[in-house]
Amino acid sequence: SGYSICTRPTRTPITGSNLDLRSAGSTRICPEGASVLQENCLEAAIFLIDNSNYFQQGQTLGSSLTIVENVDYAPCGCQLYTHDGGNHYYAVFDTGHTVCVADYRSNLICTVPLM
């Protein structure tokens, strides 16, 4: 309990030029104005798994759904989360705003602020 499953969004496409994948455990929350929206989280995660140099061949997205939850052990916002050492990642959106924790299993996905 405490989580729900959302289906793939039908929104404006995410482009790699505006995504910023943070190193695992380095960030607890995106800077103000640089958060990926919940409805864009899965699309951003899929794009980064497929196109980022951070991920190695064989690493996959473990689901075609975004897990939405409010927990006190993960970053707040859109993230790629792994529980098996990095073989499978899950798109997770933590809806919390008060307890945000940089976790070694989570790569927070932010946007690059437009200048």
Shape: globular
The H/E string reads: EEHEEEEE
Number of helices: 1
- Could you give the distance between the termini? 40 Å
Strand content: 25-35%
Largest sheet: 7 strands, mixed
Helicity level = under 10%
Q: Give me the secondary-structure category.
A: mainly beta
User: Strand tally, please?
Assistant: 7
Backbone CA Rg: 13 Å
Q: Low-confidence parts, pLDDT < 50 over ≥5 residues?
A: 1-13
Mean pLDDT: 79
Written overview of the protein:
- The chain has 115 residues and is mainly beta.
- Helix content is 10%, strand content 27%.
- It has one helix spanning 41-51, and strands at residues 3-6, 19-21, 60-61, 66-69, 77-81, 88-94, 106-111.
- Strands 1, 2, 3, 4, 5, 6 and 7 form a 7-stranded mixed β-sheet that branches.
- Strand 5 and strand 6 (88-94) form a beta hairpin.
- The radius of gyration is 13 Å and the shape is globular.
- Residues 1-13 have low confidence and may be disordered.
Record the SSE blueprint.
Layout: E1 3-6, E2 19-21, H1 41-51, E3 60-61, E4 66-69, E5 77-81, E6 88-94, E7 106-111
Parallel strand pairs: 3-6, 4-6
Antiparallel strand pairs: 1-4, 2-7, 5-6, 5-7
